[in-house]
Amino acid sequence: MKKIIFVFIGIIFLILSPLTFAAPAIEELALNHETKQCARFWSGDEFNNISLPAQWVSFPIINNYDENLNKVITDSGECTFTSYKECCEQLGYKYLEVDNIGTANIEDNSSNQSFTPIIISIIGMICVSLLVYFLRKKF
């Protein structure tokens, strides 16, 4: 009976495993200490890997729900985040009007994902076959 339960749990796990999704990364504040420039940075999602240019570092925007304000803590100080431009000015940096300071390294994941449903279906059929085999053998 333990084998049947184990196989059944395995089947449920395999059926639900393709339902997980990756979430996009959060936007961050990027600083270049040498040029005293500041910009918006987004590192991508499950399909895009976006990296910062050389000499740039990024810092997350910290949400403080208790005080109803957001702030960014950097190695150059901290700012109350209301907008990227205002935060850069609070830190003494010049804000660059760009959508994303990062450079995209687009990965082609389509070849990796195309066989996933087929493989999951085959594994599911094998698990169901094993379940039927153990049930017939038991009874």
Descriptive account of the structure:
The protein is α+β, with helices and mostly antiparallel strands and 139 residues long. The protein is built from four helices and eight strands. It has helices at residues 2-16, 84-91, 110-113, 116-138; strands at residues 27-32, 37-42, 48-51, 56-64, 69-74, 77-81, 94-95, 103-106. Strands 6-5-4-1-2-7 form a six-stranded mixed β-sheet, covered by helices on one side. Strands 3-8 form a two-stranded antiparallel ribbon. The longest helix is centred in the last third of the chain and has 23 residues, at 116-138. It is elongated.
Return Rg in Å: 24 Å
What is the distance, rounded to the nearest whole angstrom, between the alpha carbons of the first and last residues? Answer: 11 Å
Structural class: alpha+beta
- From the spread of the alpha carbons, the general shape counts as elongated
User: What series of H and E elements makes up the topology?
Assistant: HEEEEEEHEEHH
Strand numbers in spatial order across the main sheet: 6-5-4-1-2-7
Average pLDDT: 80
Number of helices: 4
Instruction: Give the percentage of residues in beta strands.
Output: 25-35%
What's this model, at a glance?
With 139 residues, the protein is α+β, with helices and mostly antiparallel strands. The protein has 4 helices and 8 strands; from the N terminus they run αββββββαββαα.
